[in-house]
């Protein structure tokens, strides 16, 4: 038994020794294969390494690549691949798979951070070869990897990415790198784990981001768009074209899109800081010019999903210091009123800002004095986007107790507006609730008769009498008859247009749109307000109303299967005057339009003619004001009333392909 045990033991020891020997041989063979791989013609190349099917070899190769790349002495290595090309490949990988942890875990984010630091510290290296592109791609790679991953954001912070990104945001290089840095900083500040690292730089970063948002449009125009193509930085042109070639017009459109993104991403970064750290509100509000222009900063048609300036304003209005600063800026309040009386998707945010300001006893007086005349136009809104009973909230905010404002008097315009609101929402409502049903019916019949007389007066050219008759009809019409009151306000808006009273036309058209269900869904009122805003020179508001009108018009025309054109399958067309208005306003609301006009005054006919009965347009008769939706004049294809498609042989205005693409996206 002992001999057998000893023999078995020796056999076991020999087997283990053989296994260790075989494992060592296999390890040596694998090391030789790895050496052969790295000594091949493609050794060290990022593109070849990432395609290696063996996971262990691929990871070892990529780790070495990311470790060595930040310290290369020239713009290319022995493998023939330039540093810029390698970093661009990393950025494309990040864009394609931002949540993939392989490259970040092997040092990709650390490598990008070190390259940013080197580019900032070594100008000679940055000017060598194609290295000028490295900071842009490196910052963008960090932004792409951190767009949805908190773990990747922690890697970026640990690698020291925040400091060079803040330097780029401050304009250490050009606006192209500034754009990529704003994007990356916004992502890093959006996570709980990495926000403190970004907040430590807030004292420096907040003014830089505010300045970038305020000046980026003028900077991009002056340093790129205003230059002839031959003088534009070559590497910026190549970055825009992704290595290909673009014409001057395409470059201008791309520059406009990138400038808009720079502005929106800078505002998003500030919004992240403001939402997580109330102490940053004081720093953001220090720049009076920035605060004044904030609500006018919008994503434009290219960035319609971004609330841009009004989103940040709403955050500021949630703190006492922010409300005090906004309430003290009359231009900011005026801009919020303009946005609240527009067809912008973020209209409800502007109303939210004003309600937050009115709910504060310390800011109520200043805000009510500046905004009451505009806000009373919105008190009939039932729902706007996610906000329900919004009109009642506005009325409650304005109709506060006397003790709330005792000792402080409002201006005459605000007093008149709040007085009319009190009469409408309290006194008249109580009177009508006490009336018998027969009396309400009698008042409704009288109101319709006054409206018919007003229509006749308008058609006969007596606009003043028509205004008086429509006003009397509104006083008689029961509050519950929202549809009839909508039509009366819309007709009043048309009368104001005939008298070139743009402010009053905007007010009446807005009241009509507030009565519509859903809000802002009455096509004629949209068109009339668009014309009024055009008279006031407010191109953005006019364009948004035109686009809303176009969407309603085209939808109804497609749904109308009873017209001859629809039966033949013809595509619906916009009225000539609407297409021309859209063309004009799109040229006026381009991101660089204001900068270009300040440099070179635009000549020509800037005044849009209103549509007329004998041309293309919008006449006013009784058919305009039928009470049932299906027979409204603005949607009647062949009726004498409503907007008419031009049949005088004129071709519709030329609208560029890009303009129509953006228009289609909006509607």
Automatic annotation (TrEMBL):
SMART domains: ARM (SM00185)
SUPFAM superfamilies named in the record: ARM repeat, TPR-like
Compositional bias ranges of the Acidic residues kind: 614-633
Domain of life: Eukaryota
Residue ranges annotated for the ARM repeat N-terminal plant domain, each copy included: 40-285
Subcellular location: Cytoplasm, Myofibril, Sarcomere, A band; Cytoplasm, Myofibril, Sarcomere, Z line
Protein name per UniProt: Protein unc-45 homolog B
Source organism of this protein record: Urochloa decumbens
């Amino acid at each position: 038994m002992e001999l057998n045990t000893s023999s078995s033991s020796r056999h076991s020891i020999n087997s283990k020794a053989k296994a260790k020997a075989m494992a060592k041989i296999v390890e040596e063979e694998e090391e030789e294969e790895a050496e052969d791989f790295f000594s091949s013609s493609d050794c060290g190349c990022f593109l070849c390494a990432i395609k290696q099917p063996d996971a262990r070899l691929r990871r070892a190769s990529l780790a070495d690549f990311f470790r060595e790349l930040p310290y290369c002495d020239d713009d290319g290595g022995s493998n023939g691949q330039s540093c810029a090309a390698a970093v661009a490949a990393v950025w494309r990988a990040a864009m394609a798979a931002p949540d993939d942890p392989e490259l970040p875990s092997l040092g990709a984010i650390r490598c990008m951070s070190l390259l940013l630091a080197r580019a900032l510290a070594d100008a000679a290296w940055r000017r060598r070869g194609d290295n000028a592109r490295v900071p842009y791609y490196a910052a963008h790679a960090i932004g792409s990897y951190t767009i949805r991953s908190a773990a990747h954001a922690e890697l970026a912070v640990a690698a020291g990415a925040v400091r060079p990104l803040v330097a780029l945001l401050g304009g250490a290089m050009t606006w192209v790198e500034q754009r990529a840095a704003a994007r990356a900083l916004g992502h890093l500040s959006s996570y709980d784990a990495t926000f403190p690292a970004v907040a430590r730089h807030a004292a420096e970063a907040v003014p830089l981001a505010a300045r970038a948002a305020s000046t980026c449009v003028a900077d991009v125009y002056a340093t790129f768009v205003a230059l002839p193509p031959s003088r534009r930085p070559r590497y910026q042109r190549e970055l825009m074209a992704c290595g290909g070639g673009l014409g001057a017009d395409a470059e201008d459109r791309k520059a406009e899109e990138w400038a808009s993104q720079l502005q929106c991403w800078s505002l998003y970064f500030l919004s992240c800081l403001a939402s997580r750290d109330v102490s940053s509100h004081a720093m953001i509000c220090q720049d009076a010019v920035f605060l004044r222009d904030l609500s006018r900063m919008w994503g434009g048609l290219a960035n319609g999903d971004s609330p841009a300036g009004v989103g940040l304003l709403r955050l500021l209005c949630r703190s006492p210091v922010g409300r005090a600063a906004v309430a003290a800026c009359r231009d900011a309040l005026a801009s919020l009123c303009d946005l609240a009386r527009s067809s912008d998707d973020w209209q409800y945010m502007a109303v939210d800002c004003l309600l937050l300001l009115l709910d504060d006893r310390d800011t109520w007086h200043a805000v009510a004095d500046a905004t009451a005349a505009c806000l009373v136009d919105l008190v009939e809104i039932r729902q706007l986007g996610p906000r329900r009973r919004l009109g009642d909230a506005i009325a409650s905010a304005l109709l506060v107790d006397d003790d709330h404002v005792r000792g402080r008097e409002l201006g005459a315009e605000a007093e008149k507006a709040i007085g009319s609101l009190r009469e409408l929402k309290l006194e008249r409502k109580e009177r009508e609730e006490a009336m018998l049903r027969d009396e309400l019916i009698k008042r409704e019949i009288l109101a319709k008769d006054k409206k018919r007389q007003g229509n006749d007066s308008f058609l006969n050219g007596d606009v003043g009498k028509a205004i008086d008759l429509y006003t009397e009809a509104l006083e008689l019409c029961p509050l519950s008859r929202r549809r009839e009151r909508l039509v009366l306000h819309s007709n009043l808006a048309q009368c104001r247009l005939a008298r070139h009273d743009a402010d009053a036309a905007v007010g009446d058209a807005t009241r009509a749109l507030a009565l519509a269900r859903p809000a802002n869904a009455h096509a004629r009122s949209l068109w009339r307000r668009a014309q009024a805003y055009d008279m006031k020179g407010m191109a953005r508001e006019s364009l948004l109303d035109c686009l809303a009108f176009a969407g309603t018009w085209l939808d109804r025309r497609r749904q109308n299967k009873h017209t001859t054109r629809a039966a033949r399958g013809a595509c619906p067309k916009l009225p000539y005057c609407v297409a021309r208005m859209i063309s004009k306003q799109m040229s006026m609301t381009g991101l660089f339009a204001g900068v270009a006009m300040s440099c070179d005054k635009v000549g020509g006919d800037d005044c849009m003619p209103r549509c007329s009965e004998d041309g293309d347009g919008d006449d006013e008769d009784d058919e305009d004001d039928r009470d049932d939706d299906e027979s409204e004049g603005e949607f009647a294809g062949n009726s004498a009333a409503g907007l008419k498609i031009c049949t005088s042989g004129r071709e519709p205005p030329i609208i560029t392909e890009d303009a129509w693409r953006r228009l289609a996206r909006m509607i």
